[in-house]
Design a protein that fits this description.
This protein is an alpha+beta fold. Helices cover 21% and strands 28% of the residues.
């Protein structure tokens, strides 16, 4: 195998050299096509607070916090028209607990913002509420004799009050926004079936960006080959797929463990999730669903594909005998459990109330990721996040 690989490596530079000398148009076409492919959207999963990393024009599946999905083409982040925002704001306000105050758009408010420098005092602003966006509150003010909409940092808002004396703290407003209880005007524009839908960004649980078609290399090659077809076979035999390959999993976890299934290596585990500093290091157990015995041996690969440093002290293969029709599941502490006829939950919600059943009901590329933003560090109830699962009661079960 080593000899054969060396032969390939020694032949390909010669092939490429000949191609450059005799087939300039084909190489130029391939290069342009490869650059075009590199600009195609990559398949990845993006949590709601990172939607600004999506590629405009990509096909996406948007999972909302209430469990609904919207499929279409991402057209960018755009401001929601004021009338539409007012409608959504009023609908959200009607769902808030009875007696909870929330100002209406166009209400005249007095807002207090934190001082930006130690020697300065708090800033008081008066104006008409024009709406909330992801990171600011928009206020209609008279600036130099002209009516203008001014954005003030939401993170610096201490409190606001209306002319009737109703008051609301900035922390409460930020919590309502981060929990998706009230809408924001910043919206995901999704083109679905020739109709553009605007989805408030704080209503988005997760977005699955689908990979774009990569046909640039082929198209560029064929165009160049029309001019100098004499060396098509030499250029086409080069392993351009390997040359241009990138990791498009969109995953934020690592390292990657691949299992050989008898034909190819398949990504089987993204281990040590969350162990991003020394104090969080741990031993991890994970099932290898694709690992297959080949000639009395098991073959695996462990890779570092992201721009970071990783430390792996030990890797062992643990074989567990278990009854038929059961599945082995290791616990976080390392205890081995067996499950028979596992059932999906009837309902799954995060501590913030997001519907996440679609993310955990199947083993696929969808995962639930807790939102770390908008939490009050002084509130112990916000220090942790988790899921509340409801399962069907087994037939004949009489316990609680």
């Amino acid at each position: 195998m080593i000899t054969k690989k060396r032969q390939c490596l020694s032949w390909r530079p010669l092939c490429l050299l000949l191609a450059v000398a005799l087939c300039g148009c084909s190489i130029i076409g391939l290069t342009i096509g490869a650059l075009s492919d590199a600009r195609q959207p990559k398949a990845m999963t993006v949590p709601g607070w990172k939607v600004d990393t999506l590629k405009v024009g990509a096909k996406v599946e948007v999972l909302l916090r209430d469990g609904r999905t919207v499929n279409g083409k991402f057209k960018g982040i755009k401001p929601m028209p004021f009338n539409q925002y007012v409608t959504l704001h009023n609908e959200a306000k009607a769902q808030l607990p009875e007696g909870m105050y929330l100002p209406n758009p166009t209400d005249t408010l007095v807002m207090t913002f934190a001082a930006r420098k130690p020697q300065e005092s708090e800033v008081t602003v008066t104006g008409q509420l024009a709406g909330f966006v992801r990171d600011s509150v928009r206020v209609g003010q008279n600036v130099a004799g002209k009516a203008r909409i001014v954005a003030w940092p939401l993170s610096e808002l201490i409190r606001l009050s209306d002319q009737r004396g109703n008051e609301l703290t900035g922390e409460t407003i930020r919590s309502l926004i981060n929990d998706g209880k009230i809408p924001v005007r910043s919206s995901l524009a999704i083109l679905a079936k020739s109709e553009q839908k605007l989805i408030p960004t704080n209503q988005v649980q997760q977005v699955h960006q689908l990979a774009g078609k990569k046909e640039g290399v082929l198209v560029g090659f064929l165009l160049g080959a029309a001019i100098d077809a004499a060396v098509i076979a030499a250029v086409a035999s080069a392993d351009w797929g390997s040359f241009m390959s990138t990791n498009e999993s969109g995953s934020m976890s690592c390292p990657f463990v691949y299992s050989f299934d008898g034909r190819q290596y398949v990504l089987d585990s993204e281990t040590f999730g969350g162990a991003i500093f020394r104090a969080a290091q741990r031993t991890d157990l994970d099932n290898l669903d694709h690992l297959t015995e080949v000639n009395g041996s098991y073959r695996m690969k462990i890779t570092n594909e992201l721009p970071e440093t990783q430390f792996v002290d030990e890797l062992r293969l643990l074989v567990v005998d278990h009854p038929r029709d059961t599945r082995v599941v290791p616990s976080f502490s390392g205890k081995i459990n067996t499950l028979a006829a596992p059932q999906p939950p009837n309902k799954a919600t995060s501590y913030r109330g997001d519907e996440v059943q679609n993310l955990i009901i199947d083993k696929d590329n969808r995962v639930w990721v807790s939102n770390p933003f908008g939490r009050n560090p002084e509130d112990k109830s916000q220090a942790r996040d988790g899921l509340l699962l409801e399962f069907p009661r087994p037939a004949g079960y009489k316990g609680r």
